[in-house]
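Here is one chain, start to finish.
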Amino acid sequence: MALPLLLALAPPAVAADPAIAPKVLVITMFGGEAKPWLDGDALGQKIPVPGLSKDYPNVICSDGGLCMMTTGMGYANAASSIAALVFGGRFDLTRTYFLISGIAGVDPAQGTLGSAHWARFVIDGGLQNEIDPREAPSDWTSGYLAMGAPAPGEKAELHYGDEVYRLNEQMLQAAFRLTKGADLVDSDAAKAYRAKYAEPAATAPPQVSSCDTISSDTWWHGARLGAAMEAYARLVTNGEANPCTTQQEDSATVTALKRGAEAGLIDFTRIAVLRTAANFDREAPGQSAAESLRARSGGYVPSVANAHRLSAKLANAIVEDWATWSVGPPK
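Its structure:
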């Protein structure tokens, strides 16, 4: 058969779909965090992405450039889902703002149920050596110590490369400036529970602040483990961190985004991390750590609502004033 006839019979070439270029991508970790976005925002486009969690297989987008995805909980789900998105080729993320928006535990010295905290440092609390404190030397402050260090509180070389991330200060300040005066949701149950605590920050109504977040797949709890994690966070940041929230995913999520930045696929300066307090990370006076861990504090509903409220405020500001934000976080 002659070549012209073969070409005539061949099916027409189908152009590849153009890459989607979100202005903002909100990253949630489970369905409860995603629900307010699905209920309250015009996110009508579902874009399936191979490699996302089977429970959350789509990135959901609006016509105006706001998208939201859900990674699944824990390190493995978070890193896998973000890597699938960043390296999947379906999205152009080179100018996208990434807004991690989820709930957390909070140190009662730093915040209360429903409070909202923008992070400067994201610290991996799981990258430590650990022995049972009952088997630790008597002069150790805890069973946690930096990887390779001889004792708790002593410095060691950071070998993994993802022990700690410092986010862009200009982005942090822009996010805080836009949201610090927002009205936050509270609940009668949260008010009653926070009254058990003595710290002024714990007994006050929920507020917005900037302080730092510690990630770990192990959901640790209690004053002793809290103190050990805080000490480690300050150690690996040379005393700069002010840790306040605890969660399971942010270190993994930011690591996957960092890989994308190193490949030239995203701008690492356009990442913000917001965590809102669903529970206290340690016990109240007269309460055991086990009782605190099992307690129903009333913080879940306010924390989910406030994560959406503040994140939406920032996301909408970026979308609506894209002429300003397109060149980077405003001073």
